[in-house]
## 1
Amino acid sequence: MRFRPAVVIVFVALGCQDKKPAGPLVSETPGPAVMAESTAVTAPSTSRPPDPPPLDGSIEGKPFRPQAASMEGWFVVFRQKEGTGETTIQFLLPAQEGADLAGREWTVGGKVDDPVLVITRPNRKDPTDVFGLDYTMSFRLTKHTHDSVEGVVDLTAKKPAGTFLKGPFKATYRKGPTAPLGPDDAPYVRGKIQVKGAKKTEKLAAGYVGIGVDGKPYSNEAGFPIDVGTDLSSNAESPQHPAQISWLATTADAITYRHLNMPPGDYLVYVRRDTVMSAWKRIKLQAGDQQTLDFTIDPATTGEVAVTLPDSDAKDPAETTLALVPLKADLPELGLGSEHYFNVATVKMDEKTVKVSGIPAGKYRAVRGTDEAEIEVVAGKSAAVTLVRKK
C-alpha cells in the first residue's frame, strides 16, 4: 500500500488555574468597634476546566471514533478498527508542504473544485466519494514535530447524511516526497531520475542495499508503475530500520527519489526499470550526510541477454530466479546470497531459455541457483550464454 497505519491518537487536555479573590476580613478588638481595612487574599483553586471533548464522529449515523491517524505529506487518514478491517476518512489537503506546519489552517468544502473526501468501510467493496459541494471542513494544526502533528478537525457532510468528525487529534507524520529536507532527515540520499525516451507508463523503483557501520545489512526500495508527467508517489519503510523511509515520486516536471534517515554505512544506491537494475552508484554515508545523486537511464546503451539453462532435475524447486551481477564494478561487500538484489527474471523449472532486454552494457555473472556463467552485454545487440551447473 502507499499509505501505512499510524499511531494511536492521543488527546491533550489543556488546563489553567483560576484565581479568586477572598471577601473582606473584619477585625474586632475590645472597646469601640473598629472596622479594620482589609487586604484581599488570592488563593489558588484546585479545580480546572473540563477537558476538551474527544475526537468524535459518525458515518451515515453510525459512530466513528478513530483510534489512529496519520499524515503523510498532505494526505490525511483517520482510522477506526472494525474487526479485522477498518473504517477510514481520508483526504488530500490543497497545499504545498513547508518546513513548519504549526499554525497552518485550512477551510474547505462548499465548492466544486474542493478536495474529494474518501470514506472506506470493510463491509463495502467500493469507497464512498464525498465531493466538495457536499461537505464543509476546517482543519487546523497546532503542533508539529519531526514525526507527529496535533490539531483540531471540524467536518460536516450533507452526503452521506449523518456524517461528521469533530475534535482534537494527534497523528503520526511523515514528510511528503517534495517537502524541504533538513538535518532531522539525515543521513539521506536524494536525486532525480531521467529516463531518455520514456514510455507513457514506466515501471520504476529506487532503492539501496549495503552494510551499516554497525555491521548489519540494510536495504529498502520504493517503486510502482509511473504515468510519466502525473503527480503520484509511493513510499516504503525499511524492514530493518523502521525510521528509514524511501520515496519515489513523479510530477509534471521530474521523477525524484529520496531515502531518509539511512543508517551510516557503505551502500549501493540504484534504480530499477522493468525489474532490471538499470543505474547504480556506490556511496559511503556518514552521520549527518545530506547527499544528492542523480541517475540517467538511456535505453540506447542497453542490450539483450538470452540465457540457456541446464536441464532440470527432481531436486530443483518449481520456480527460481535469474540474476545478472555486474563484474569489475564498484560494489560494496553485500555478503552471501546478495545475488538476489540483481534478479532480472523468474524462471520456471521446465524453461530452457530466458530472454531479458534493457540490460546496461557491460560484463556480468549470470546466476540461477548454483548454475552460472559470465556474459558480456553490448548496446543494441543480443548476447547468448549457457549456464553451467556446479557439481
## 2
Amino acid sequence: MSEPTTSLAPQNLVSWDELHQRALVHDDLTESERQAAADAMLELKSVLGEQLFEGLHPLVGFFINRAAGPFKWAIWFAKVLAPIRHHPDFDRLVADLRNPERYGERMTILNITDILSAAGFAFTLDKEIQINGKPKKPDLLVQLNNVDPGLFIEVTTLGASEKEREANEVFRAISDALWLSSGLFRYSGRVERILSPKHLEEVLQKVKSMAIKAQNETGFETLKIDGVICLAVATEVKAAEMGNWARAQGMKPDEFRGPPVEVSEMDRLSFKLKTEQAQLPPDKTNVVVIYTHLFQGAPNTPAAFSALANAIEDAVYRHSHIGYLVLVFSWIGGNRNESYRLRDHLCINRERFDYMCQTFMLFKNRFAAKPMPDELEQKFLEAFMSQTGEPDERGDNRVI
C-alpha cells in the first residue's frame, strides 16, 4: 500500500504509546486486529523512533485520524518492515522514512519492493551504474536469484500541475468564505477562471457580503461578474428559487464548480517518463513506476482503462529500453477488486484498509529492444496480480 498523504498536523498531538493503547480498545477492530495493531505500534516505535512525532512528519496527521484504517495500515507497514530488518539497505531506508522530506518518495519505493518481494524478488536500493560515462542510481534493482541480471526500476511521483493547484486554492477559498459567512444556506454556481491573489481577495469580499445579506435580509442573492464568477446563495426557504436560477444558467442546483483547468495530463506523463527513463541503463529492459494524482476518474470499467491505455501506450513505445510503465492511482473512496486486460496491458483495481484504494496499470512496451525473459515477466506480472487475489463477489477478471 502506498504512503498516507494527509496535511501535516501540529506537534505533540500523538505518540506511539498512545496509539498502542488506542489500538487495544478500538471498537472497529476485531480482537485479533486490536492485538496486531498494538504490536505494530510498538514495532514502528522501535524502528522509526519516538522523535518522529516531535516534528512535522506526514504520519502525525495520518495517525490523528481515529478511524480503523490507519491501524490496519500500520499492521501492513510493520509486516513489510519486519522481514527486511537485516537487509544491508535497511538503515538507509529507515533514515529516509524518518525524514519528512524523503518519507513520501521512500514509501512509494517500499511499496514496490513489498509487491515484488512477495513474488520472490530480492532488491537492492540505489545501485550505482554508469550511463554514457556518468554515474546514475536507479531506485531499485530486483532479481529472482544471484545469476539473474534483474530489472532496474525507477519509481517517481507526478502531482497536480501548478495550474490545478491554483484552481483548487481558488475553489476552496470561495467555498470556505461561503461556509464561514453562514453555514445555513444553499449555494450554486461556477468560477470562470483562476484568479490572482488580489483579484480573489476582491471577489471574496463580494461573496461574503452577498452571503450575509441573503442570510439576514433577502434569503436569496446572486453575484455575476462576466468571465469571473456566477454564483447564487439562498436560505432553505428560498432553495426552489435558487434551483430555478441555477437551471437557467445551465447548472445543476447545489452544484459549485470551477475554475476550469486546461492541462494535458498525457503530455505531463510523457515528459515525466522521458525524464525518468534517462536514469535507466539503455542496454537492458527496465521499468518506470509513476505514482500520479487522480487526474481523471479511476479506470474501474474496461472502457475507461481502454481509453487511458490508447492515450498513453505510444509514449511508452518511444523508449526501447523501457519494458513496462506502471501507473498508480491512489485515493480514499471505493473500488472494485478486479482486473482488466487490453492487448498487452493490464489494469488491477483493489480496495484495502477501509476505503484506501489503488489502481495499478501496467503498460507493456511490445517494441522493447530486449524483452523481459518469459519467467521474469511472468513473475513480475504475478506480483502485481496478487495485489487483488481472487475476484470477490463484486469483481471479475476480464479481457477487453
## 3
Amino acid sequence: MENGDKPGIGIELTQNAGRITGQMFLLDPDSPGDFAAGSPRTMYIHHVTEKEIRFRVDWLPDRHDEMVLRLDSPLNADRVKGVLKTADKSGRPQDYEFVRIK
C-alpha cells in the first residue's frame, strides 16, 4: 500500500452467524502486511447490506471518521473487492481485496 505520508490501513472483517464486526489497523510502514504489528481501531458498524458496510472509526479520542465500504459481491465469496471512502466523500477512495480465511 502506498499512502504518501500516511500509514497504510488494513481492514479485518469477521462474519459470525450473519453478524459482521471489524477492525481497522494502522499498519507499520516497515511491516505493511503484518496486521499484528499494526495499531487496531474498532469499527463501530451502523448499517450493513449485502454489498455495503457503514461505520465509524475512532483514530484518536478527538478524531473519527464516518466511513462507507462498498463491496463488489457478498462477503461469503472467497475473494471480495471493495472500495472504502469517507461518508462525506472528503477523502480519496481506497481499493481493498478481502480474502476469506476459515
